[in-house]
Each structure stands twice: as C-alpha cells, then as structure tokens.
Amino acid sequence: MARSKSTVTIDGRLIGEAAAPYIVAELSGNHKGCLEHALALMEAAAACGVDAIKIQTYRADTITIDHDGPEFRIEGGLWKGRTLYDLYEEAHTPWEWHKALFEKAKSIGITLFSSPFDAAAIDLLEELGCPAYKIASYEMVDVNLIRRAAATGKPLIISTGLANFSEIEEALAAALEGKGGVALLYCISGYPTPPEEANLRTMVDMAERFDVPLGLSDHT
Asked: What is the predicted pLDDT for the residue at 29?
C-alpha cells in the first residue's frame, strides 16, 4: 500500500500518516433543536477524548425549496415521506447558535469546525475563527464552494461519498488552490450504511491514487 507523505494541520494538531488518528465527533442535527443539548453533547464528546467536533452550517432555504413534489420528498429509509425542506429545517444548526458553540469549544479546550453549504456560511464561520472546513459528500461536486473555502487558507476535509474518481480529482485540484492543505474521507452515503456495503478496501486504492491524508467518514 502506498503511503502518503502529505499532512495537514488543524488548530495546531498535525494530521497525517505518521500522526495519531484524528477523531472527529459529529454534532450535526443531534442537538434536536435545543442549544443546551448541543452544548451538553460538546461536553460529552470532549470527555470521551475526541480531537474535534463538527457542526453543519446551512439554512433550509439556502439549500432547497419548500415544496412537496416527488423530487423533494424522501422515498425510503429513516426519513421516508419527509420533504427535504422539513427535514433540513428540523436538523439545521441555527446560525444564531454558532457564536455560543465556538465559545463553548474554546472554554472546554476542543477544536470546533463546520461543513458550510454556501458562501454565506463560510463568511459567518470566518467571522467566528473557524479553523478548518469540511466539504460534505453532497457538496464535493460544487467546485465553486470548494474554491471559496480553500481561499480562506484553512485546511479542508472532503468526504467522497457520492463521487467517482474524476470528480475526486477535480475537487482536490480546487482545494489545492488554497494554502491550507486537504484531506479526503472515504465515505458511503447510506444512513445507516449496512456493514456489508462498507468495502473498506477502497481506502487502500484511494491511498495509492491520491497523495493526501486519508480517513473514514463512517455511517455504518
């Protein structure tokens, strides 16, 4: 297996082949619409010894429209019958919470960063000193978003759940226009992903193809 010599540094922590694993806890919509619950989850994650916590920065009306047509309704899985707008409205992390979340991370000594879904989200996160940006699988073909995040000079972590290899190469090229470096996460965009579909050997192939730090975004 080829070994990547590339590294990235997030909030002073080196990430790469020679470093200890970098473990990120996903907060996302697990707050269930309650800021106090979100803050308690951050404390619990820090107590478990994770290196960082990730949130998502979007609003329902910035990534979809309030419509119940078949293209906007989920057909199966955990959210069968829900519209995209309704689901995102319930799951999003309100922008007015973000300052409190970043202050909490600083007070408990843990790194907090986010997945932005548009340029306005990046602008907000820059005001709050976000140390890195995670590009979600669904957004990795949004090359303009990747370029905007890379232009901040912060490191990027890109999930590859819906991408083919040419799309990964295009996303990497856009990310490397910045000076912060980039890491890739192998990912299966299933919620949850059946273990028999995980195919972790793909990580071996990715490590041979792409000379960047490689990790796993696990949905099993």
From this structure: 86
